[in-house]
Amino acid sequence: MHFDLIDLQLFQHTLECGNITAGAQRSHLSLPAASARIRAMEASLGTPLLERNRRGVQATSAGQALLQHARLIGQQVERLQFDLAQYAQGLQGQIRLLCNTAALSEYLPERLASFLAAYPAITLDVQELPSLRIVQAITQGAADLGIISTAASHEHLQTLPFRDDPLVLIMPPTHPMAARTELRFADTLEHGFVGLSTDSALALHLEQQALHLGRRMQVRVRAESFDGAIRMVAHGAGLGVVPLAAVRRWQGVLALHSVALEDSWAKRQLLLCARDFSSLPGHGQALVQHLSATPEDRNGLTPRNDVTSG
User: Would you tell me the crossing angle of helices 61-85 and 5-17 to the nearest 10 degrees?
Assistant: First the structure.
C-alpha cells in the first residue's frame, strides 16, 4: 500500500462530505487530482473503497475500515503536531466539540470565549446535535469531545460531570395547569406549545418523547432561542419546556410560572464525553480541564465510565 497523509485526509473528507467534489475542496485539491488519488488508493489495495451513485459516495466495507484507521492516524498526527509545537510556539490545534442545545446556549459561550482568549493558537469547531447522535459521532471518532444529556446511553464512553440541567415546564401564571405542583410530560400534550426551531436538538428530543407516548406535540409557533420561547410563553402563546437555567435569567422580569417535570429524562445532567480522555491531543485535554464541572476536575482529569443515567 502506498498511502500518504494527504490521501487519508482526502478519503476522510470525501466520506464526511458525501461526495468527491466537496472532499477535494475541503482538502484543497483539484477534482482531477482528488479522483486520481482515490483511484490510486483503490488500485494499491486491489479493492474498491467507495460506492459511487447519483447522491454521491458511500464507503464499502474496506472503505469503512480505512476510514476508521484514517481518523486514528489523523488524531495521532494532531498529537504529534501539538507535542512538537511546545518547543516552538506553544499550544496549537483545532478541536471539534459537539453539544446539545442547552449546553450550547446556556453554558458554553462564556467558557469557550475565555478558553480561546487563553489559547489564541487554538480554533474550535462547535456543532449542535441531539445527545444520541453525539454519542454515535464520538464512538465513530468523528469528533473529539461531546457534551451530552444523561438521557442518552453512553456506557462505552468516558465521561466527566459538566452541569446539572433539569428541564422545566413553563406557562403564564393564569394558565389552567399553573395550579398543579407535579406534572409529567404526558399531562401537557393536550395543550399548545411554543417550540424551538425544527433543527434544535432539544426540539427533536421533546418530539421523540411525545412519539414514545403515542402522541404528537401541538406546536403553535417556533422560537429561535430559549429567550424567545420564554418571552412568547410569558405572553400567552402556549406552554414551553426549557432548561431551568434559562428560566432563572427572567425571574423578576416576566410573569412566568414554572413546574419541574417528573419524567426521568427531564431530571438530567450534562456530561463531557470522549472515547478516551487520556488519548486526546494536548489542546483537547486543555479544553477538558477548562470545561470540567468542579475545581477538582479542572486540576486533574478523573474520567468516569459509571455515571448513572437520570
Answer: 120
pTM above 0.85, yes or no: no
pLDDT tens track for 181-200: 889 999 999 999 999 988 78
For residues 209 and 196, give the distance between their C-alpha atoms in angstroms, rounded to a whole number.
Answer: 15
Residue with cell 487563553: 118
Going along the chain from its start, the domains and CATH numbers come out as 5-75 (1.10.10.10), 91-164+268-299 (3.40.190.10), 167-266 (3.40.190.10)
| 103 band by pLDDT with thresholds 50, 70 and 90 | confident
**Residue that wins the pLDDT comparison between 293 and 54:** 54
Q: Residue written as cell 494527504? A: 6
Q: Give the residue from 231, 250, 249 showing the smallest Cα distance to 240.
A: 231
Residue type, 250: W
3-state secondary structure of 99: strand
Distances (CA, A) of 136 to 63, 263, 284: 19, 24, 19
CB-based contact 271:127 (threshold 8 Å):
no
Q: Strand pairing partners for 109?
A: none
